[in-house]
Structure formats: structure tokens, C-alpha cells
Amino acid sequence: MRIITTAMNIPMRQVTNDDLSQTLDTSDEWISQRTGIRKRYIASTETTYSMGLAVAQDLLTQSQVAPAALDFIIVATMSPDHLTPSEANRIQGALKANNAYAFSVNVACAGFVYALHLAANLLNGTATCGLVIASETLSRLVDWQDRKTAVLFGDGAGGVLVQRDAQPLPISDLHSFGDNTQQLQVGAGIDSPYFAMDGQAVYQFALREVVASLKRMPPADIYLLHQANARMLQAIARKVHLPLTQVPHNMAEYGNTSAASIPILLHECIADGRITRGQKLLLCGFGGGLAVGSILLTY
Q1: 250 annotated active-site
Q2: pLDDT digits over 99-122, tens only?
Q3: Which of 109, 129, 269, 284 is catalytic?
Q4: Known catalytic residue at 256
Q5: By C-alpha distance, which of 183, 172, 251 is closest to 214?
Q6: Of the residues 117, 226, 249, 267, which is catalytic?
Q7: Catalytic (active site) residue 129
Q8: What domains does the chain contain, in order, with CATH numbers?
Q9: Of the listed 89, 256, 267, 284, which one is catalytic?
Q10: pLDDT below 70 — which residues of the chain?
């Protein structure tokens, strides 16, 4: 599987930590010291569908691939606009990608990695070209009076256009931990439509299971980890003996955008030259489910 091009899309409205301090008992210092986050982008008119479609259109324009050439469209999201139809189907229809089958996956913050794993296997079969997109409007799922979660999340979308090539299948490591579902939930009931998270338990889960997944994988040049928390990524890097130069991060700018965080980071690293052709990339998503997914590929 070869990544041909990348794209991202974010809402127009920017919300800083200082903005949040106007309505919450918090401060820029409190948030940034604990999370590394300084601002995030919050949807006003944008939707999961509209941002995902913008990414898809950008990918096709950059690559000069016609919609009719697409075999599949996969959208990773935990914040769809509709329960059905899926955002993938809506994007397929808007693009008039009439030869493509489309479906969405929900593995929360690990969703993009799981979607890439599926795409690689589709390309190892009869498919030759497809889109893998992650799009999230998490702001609709946040209780903006809850300091523990309101400071963490942002909205955005990112994605890749992938094609079949002669390389062997990417190496993947996917694991689910359904006995720990209560540690991170959204919409657990009619009276609980928002994020409910045991932050310390999720932090310890990441230190344990993300580190274990990375240690099971071959080494890489660049490690693109889900952008949840700067302290968490630094601790993971120490445990795996990685220099921070190999573990880029951008949560200061975007906050935690769930499935979209890895493709947004990937796009930025390619755009500014931190990632170049031929490098081995290890992408690792982790979070709600609970779930962890790692995939190693060559850019």
C-alpha cells in the first residue's frame, strides 16, 4: 500500500485556553502544563460530513485521480452526523464515486489505524485505489461545563489517498480491551450524552498497552501517535527508548481530535518536510473501546 497524498480540514473557529477560562474554573497554565494543549478548533457550521468531504475533494485534486477510479472509501469517526447513512456513503455520493463501495468504522481514537489496516487488505485483493479519511466533531459530545473533558477535545479531519503497490502488506498490531469499556465512554445512556472518562485509568492503560504494542512492532523512523496528551506521549517515548525527535506532536494547536489526530499530524509532517519518501512510519492509535492499533508502513 502506498500513500499517494494527504489532506486535512479544520473548522474556522479557534478556541484558546484563555477563551475556556472565561467560562470554566481553569487557566492556560493549568491546561497546557497537564495536557500540552493550548487551543483547538470547534465546529460552528462545519460537520463531520462537510470536513470529510473537503478532505476527499482535496485528495482527489492533489492526486489528479478521478472519482470513478476509486474502489473504496473508508471513514473513521466516533462522531457521525447520522447513525445512518454513514458519512462514507454520503461522501461517496457527493463525489459521484459510483464504482466505490463505502463504509465507516468506529474505533474511536484508534479508528484511522484500523481503517488503514482494512484498506491495506483491500488493496491486497482486487482493489487498486481508495480513500481513508477520519473526521470528527467531538465538540458535540463535550459537556462544556466539565473541566475534565472540555479542555481536551477539538474538531477536524484528515485523510490519505492510497494505491496498490508492490510492497508487502504493512505490519499491523490490533488489540481490543472490551472489559475496560467503562473507562472511556460517550453517550452511555439517554441521560449521559457526553464524554465520561476515568482520565488516570486511561493514562495508565496507554502507558501499558501502547508501549506493549510498540515493542511488538519493528523499529521505524517516525512514530505518529494519537495526539491525546503531551505528557503521555513523552512517557511512552521514554518507556520505548525513543528520542522525542522521532515522536512529533501537534496537540498544542488542535487538542485531541480522536481518529483525525494521526492523519492531521501525518499531513503536517509531510508538508513541512519532517517526513520524506522512503521513511518507515509507525502509526499508533489508542483510546475508547478500549482499543490499541499500530501499523508500520513505508511512505
Answers
A1: no
A2: 999 999 999 999 999 999 999 999
A3: 109
A4: yes
A5: 172
A6: 226
A7: no
A8: 2-163 (3.40.47.10), 171-298 (3.40.47.10)
A9: 256
A10: 189-191
